[in-house]
Amino acid sequence: MAKWTRLQLAAALMLGLAGPAAADQTTTDTDRATVPVMTALGMRELPALPQKIVVLDIAAADTLAALEVPIAGLPSRLYVDYLNKQQAEAAPMGTLFEPDFEAIAGLAPDLIVAGGRSSRQVEALSEIAPTIDMTIWGASHVDLALSRLRSYGALMERSATAAALEAAFLAKLEAARVAVDGRGRALIVMTNGPKVTTYGAQSRFGWLHGALNLPEAVIEQPEATALEEDTTAEAAAHGEAISFEYIAQANPDWLIVIDRANAIGQDNQAAAATLDNALVTGTEAWKKGQIIYLDSAAIYIAGGGIQSMTATLEQIRAGFAVGG
Predict the structure, then answer these.
(1) How many Å from the N-terminal Cα to the C-terminal Cα in the chain?
(2) What is the pLDDT of residue 96?
């Protein structure tokens, strides 16, 4: 029997003309195998191999690109150069903070992947298509990122590729651990023009301390008040504003620097110029040339993506290898 189109099949079924052979040629979502996927909101069962995916989270786009999964829709600007190919091939779906709901609905996706900056839109997006929140956050950053990698691999039937990417990441992680072992304390700072914030072990970038067993350069602070404790979550997300005096007092052996302005394509004062002052140049890190400028777009915009994390670890390893 010749193949039927969906329209022909529907008409035939209504008229009682289609036999079992014709009916067997259609596959609905409920007929497809499902895959358990752990999301930020709990476990979801999703039909395997969604054909048209809209991705509104850059970490997810990073990992799906590494798995060579086609992406039908992306935010109009990603800021991450290594995703230029995916950006060029995907339809624009608004911004990270403001998805274009009309464009997304018009694309009729099988799956929408949100997370991070777009996570607040999950409920609204779910009215268009199945939507998952794949935010990566907290002290278990690495474990969550690898869990996301495995889930995408299983969902897209690319588990072997996912396993290879995980193995490469773990090799970089071990190499970076060896490189930092016994080399002193580090302070992670982010500049935004002339402003400086620090990110401690419990922050969004704190996985570098935890995963690498890298001691943190800190100044002992008085016991926090209840009001100050309420600001912990905010500091974890956006960092804690500090002065150059703070950096001088912490006197890190290593400065790990993220330039936010550079990450988002702004021409503000560069991180190297911001930090070049008498207080910072007096630290052990500066005097020994032990300052590592990370690929800011990768870690700040795509943080949690398997490509981002693997590249960051290699930058850390290389930086410690050439440090004073």
Answers:
(1) 75
(2) 87
